[in-house]
Design brief:
80% of the residues lie in helices and 0% in strands. By secondary structure, it is mainly α. Bound molecules: fe (ii) ion (2 copies).
């Protein structure tokens, strides 16, 4: 049964995979392989989504957690500021066109991002699942989802869906189906179809109601 927190799990997986691509490209680039600038440049949009996500957590998830597990969230706020610093360092290295320093920064960013996301999945969101009611989880996740600016939603879908597996795609789509007005959901599924190409058939196999809807 899909629950609201599954949307967060999907986005965490997308962050992991995108940063893995960015870091691998930065390392290959530092070793002299040409043509990887566009992959390294993904860090800009990656970080925009990361900021929307972290802001949404601080606005909605962490206050809900504070009610049921006081003083846990403050450590995660510190992590978010450390991620901001990781972005600033990477941005500086890219702007002075220093491939070695860029690769050092993507490695540090990736390492800390992975630690942060694993802690959130295994600790923070475990407490949310255990101690916050499903309707309240839904409200908090809806506030987070509202952090994606309307005019960037298409870009967000085109970024997200290629980075996640079939289970996460299904969960995310089911959550949108429950949360969005029908017309908005049809628009979202059109974007999903464009984002995943041939994999659309697997999603419609899992959710036959999508076939012909978009
Ligand atoms: Fe976070
Ligand atoms: Fe998170």
């Amino acid at each position: 049964m899909t629950g609201p927190i599954d949307a967060v799990v999907a986005i965490h997986n997308a962050f992991r995979h995108d940063m893995q691509h960015i870091d691998s490209a930065a390392l290959d680039s530092a070793r002299g392989k040409p043509g990887l600038e566009a992959t390294v440049e993904r860090f800009r949009f990656f970080n925009e989504v990361l900021e929307w996500h972290a802001h949404g957590e601080e606005l909605a998830i962490f206050p809900a957690l504070e009610e049921v597990a006081p003083s846990v969230a403050e450590a995660y706020v510190k992590d978010h500021r450390a991620l901001d610093a990781a972005f600033d360092a990477l941005n500086d290295a890219v702007s002075v066109d220093d491939p070695l320093e860029t690769a050092r920064c993507t490695k540090a960013f990736r390492y800390f991002l992975d630690v942060h996301l694993d802690k959130e999945d295994g600790h923070l969101y475990r407490l949310i699942r255990e101690r916050v009611s499903v309707p309240d989880q839904g409200k908090a996740v809806a506030v987070m989802a509202g952090g994606v600016p309307q005019d960037r939603f298409a870009e967000f879908v085109m970024w997200l869906y290629p980075l996640i597996g079939d289970d996460d795609r299904e969960n995310m789509t089911r959550i949108w189906q429950m949360a969005m007005p029908p017309e908005a959901f049809v628009g979202a599924t059109q974007l999903v179809e464009a984002a995943i190409g041939d994999d659309w058939s697997e999603l419609t196999r899992r959710m036959p109601e999508l076939a012909g809807a978009s």
